[in-house]
Design a protein that fits this description.
Elements lengths: L5 H22 L4 H11 L11 H22 L2 H33 L3 H12 L3 H10 L6 H28 L6 H40 L2 H23 L3 H12 L5 H25 L3 H6 L1 H26 L3 H10 L5 H12 L5 H23 L1 H9 L2 H7 L18 E4 L3 H12 L4 E5 L2 H9 L4 E3 L18 E4 L3 H15 L4 E5 L3 H9 L4 E3 L1 H16 L4 H15 L7 H15 L4 E6 L11 H4 L1 H5 L2 E7 L2 E3 L13 E6 L1 H12 L3
Helix pairs in contact: 1-2, 1-11, 2-11, 3-9, 3-10, 3-11, 4-5, 4-7, 4-13, 5-15, 6-7, 6-16, 7-8, 7-14, 7-15, 8-9, 8-10, 9-10, 13-14, 13-16, 14-16, 14-17, 15-16, 23-24, 24-25
């Protein structure tokens, strides 16, 4: 093995091992993170076979932290952070204090020194933002109120960690620690933090969006993608090198300042591939750092530490949620999300080793607690909804957690009958619901984002708050009594999960959704979807229709092209509803032979203006038949001989090409 290729080989083998681990985890119905951690362990120096460079992988994993935090900043606006600061700031401070005390007590029970106890307590008190965001996203809770509060909570913890890392060398370093030196260190850390945040919010919020907009307008797409990478990583490194702050904080603020750009959605799309790849590298690198032999020798201590991280911190955060009355669902989400430790715990542990406070075995125990808690943390989210249902049935618990929160009242289940269930209140879902409300059709919205759900409720729409793809919320939508389920958001993968669950609850329910590809149509039909719309295909057909109309083609000819395009685009539907309707339309067109329907405007000053249809005797003159009339927003379908044609009216004519041409000439012919 050549020393100059060890980084490349470690990177490749770690990805292969993480991929294999992810596949095995999926087959065993385990979270993918577990597979990535085990994959990293497989190429670590502590297992047989290939020995990877864990130090190099740890540096690569920092890129994953940067991209993850950059993406978090893109979706976590300053307004969101300001809204949750009243909960996130005191909650984070109190949790760090209580978690540190609990970790200190456990370390002393292990027989560790007081200094090592402080290090363990600090490591236990601070959770991983990367793990939190990953699990919140997988559980469909990232945009929920609890998800936003938990994210803000950990952002505050990250800021606190910056101060802690400045203080530790001063307190535990060589020589005596004086109060002036400690105060000077704290003041310097706070000054650097404030200066960097102010620089980003005042100058960066103006320069970076402007720069990206210019690049998007004047440069090729690959330069725009490179600009996104440079801004994410460059800002993170500037925070570390110039201000002695964490790269995570720098990347987060970079995302925040560009989130106000009109290109924020495109920026997020460009960052996603890098975020996904390097976040996997992050979890694999964590697995590489664990020594199974040391953990086996300290199995009892490991179990106690994991219990403190997952159960102790969960209990602490549930108590804080009750004290601050942030809501039961929010408290459960925050408690589940913070029941783990991660990258900042590693940094604190490494600092402890560098200062001679922690031994290598003690640091390995912290790593083991992190790995186990990360692997099990996603299971904690699966308990959020069952615990909420169980605990909310107790009035005293509900009163304790909901004192100062506004909860959306679920619709009365007795009223849910012959209704339409719409999943998602985005642009498509909102369009469907507006039509249903206007037509007075009973409807029910299922929406996972609380602010969006509140917006819909203000419009008078009954709402169930929850993620239809990752919860049991559909069981409360009374799908067995519904007429139609419309899946209007979440993407193909989420729609497939929702449709499968809905079909199991209501075998005869009609399900309508959308897909981005022919493969997506096929997958959705396979799980029981009745009707699938491909927005890009339908948009292309409309572009084709308008183009051919401008070129002078008849509507009947255009319809034939549209039918052919739809037949190929929806081939996966087979003999489904859309296919049958298409064939019915084709049979109708065939029965009419060359008969066509064409709209003609009554020109001002034409021979037919101010005439009645009876006086005009259109059929005798041209052979065409007038079948409808549109005047402004009014449409008249049954025309009589006394119908008067006015300038600006649009008349629907039926006839052959030659008959329609004669009618067009008559309508445009001046008196």
């Amino acid at each position: 093995m050549h020393g100059d290729t060890i980084l490349l080989m470690t990177f490749v083998f770690a990805l292969v091992a993480a991929f294999a681990g992810g596949l095995v985890a999926r087959a065993l119905h385990l979270p993918p993170i577990v597979g990535y951690l085990v994959g990293g362990l497989a190429v670590s120096p502590f297992t047989p076979g290939f020995i990877g460079d864990s130090h190099a992988m740890n540096q690569l994993s920092e890129i994953g932290v940067m991209f993850m935090m950059f993406s978090t900043g893109l979706h976590f606006s300053l307004k969101d952070l300001n809204e949750v600061k009243g909960i996130a700031v005191p909650g984070a401070v109190l949790q760090i204090a209580l978690g540190t005390l609990a970790g200190f007590g456990l370390a002393r029970a292990f027989g560790w020194s007081a200094e090592a106890g402080v290090m363990l307590g600090l490591s236990v008190s601070i959770a991983s933002t990367v793990v939190l965001i990953k699990n919140l996203t997988d559980a469909g809770l990232y945009q929920s109120r609890g998800g936003r509060i938990a994210t803000g909570w950990l952002i505050v913890e990250d800021l606190a960690t910056v101060v802690v890392l400045v203080v530790l060398p001063v307190v535990f370093g060589p020589g005596e620690t004086s109060a002036p030196a400690l105060a000077a260190g704290l003041a310097e850390a706070l000054a650097k933090t404030v200066a960097f945040v102010a620089l980003m919010l005042v100058i960066g919020s103006r320069v970076l969006p402007w720069l990206l907009a210019r690049i998007a307008r004047l440069c090729p797409s690959e330069l725009f993608q490179l600009a996104v990478v440079v801004i994410a990583l460059g800002t993170a490194m500037a925070a570390a090198l110039l201000f002695d702050l964490s790269v995570a904080l720098g990347a987060f603020l970079a995302g925040v300042v560009v989130s106000g750009s009109k290109l924020s959605h495109r920026i997020a799309a460009e960052a996603i591939p890098f975020k996904d790849l390097f976040s996997i590298i992050f979890f694999a690198s964590v697995g590489m750092m664990v020594n199974p032999g040391v953990l086996a020798a300290h199995a009892g201590e490991l179990i106690a530490l994991v219990a403190l991280i997952m159960l102790g911190k969960w209990a602490i955060n549930m108590v804080l949620g009750a004290v601050m009355s942030i809501g039961l669902a929010t408290s459960l989400t925050v408690a589940a999300g913070l029941a783990q430790i991660g990258e900042f715990s590693f940094i604190i542990g490494q600092t402890g080793m560098a200062l001679g406070v922690l031994s290598s075995d003690q640091y390995t125990l912290i790593l083991g607690g992190a790995v186990v808690s990360i692997a099990l943390n996603s299971f904690a989210f699966k308990l959020v909804e069952p615990l909420e249902h169980r605990l909310s049935s107790a009035p005293i618990v509900r009163a304790l957690y909901e004192r100062h929160t506004r909860a959306i009242e679920p619709p009365k289940e007795s009223l849910l009958e012959d209704h339409v269930v719409v999943v998602g209140y985005g642009h498509a879902g909102k369009s469907v619901l507006e039509a249903l409300v206007r037509l007075e059709v009973p409807c029910l919205l299922v929406e996972r984002d609380l602010p969006v759900a509140e917006e819909a409720e203000e419009e008078g729409i009954p709402v169930l708050v929850g993620d239809a793809a990752n919860s049991e919320i559909l069981a409360h939508a009374h799908l067995d009594a519904a007429r139609v389920l419309v899946i209007a958001g979440g993407g193909e993968a989420a729609a497939e999960v929702i449709a499968r669950e809905a079909r199991s609850l209501a075998p005869t329910l009609r399900i309508v959704t959308r897909a981005d590809s022919a493969d997506g149509v096929e997958a959705l039909v396979a799980v029981g979807v009745n009707d699938v719309v491909r927005p890009e295909l339908e948009g292309g057909i409309e572009l084709m229709r308008h183009t051919l109309l401008d070129l002078g083609y008849r509507p009947r000819q255009i319809q034939e092209y549209a039918n052919d395009l739809r037949a190929s685009g929806y081939e996966a539907l087979g003999d489904g509803a859309r296919r049958k309707r298409m064939r019915a339309a084709e049979r109708m067109m065939a029965s009419l032979a060359e008969v066509d329907l064409h709209w003609v405007e009554v020109a001002s000053g034409s021979a037919v203006a101010a005439s009645t249809l009876g006086a005009l005797d259109l059929r005798a003159c041209t052979g065409a038949q007038a079948v409808a009339l549109r005047r402004g927003e009014d449409l008249e379908l049954f025309l009589g001989a006394d119908t008067v044609l006015c300038p600006g009216d649009h008349v629907a004519l039926m006839g052959t090409d030659a008959q329609l041409e004669a009618a067009e000439a008559l309508f445009a012919y001046p008196k």
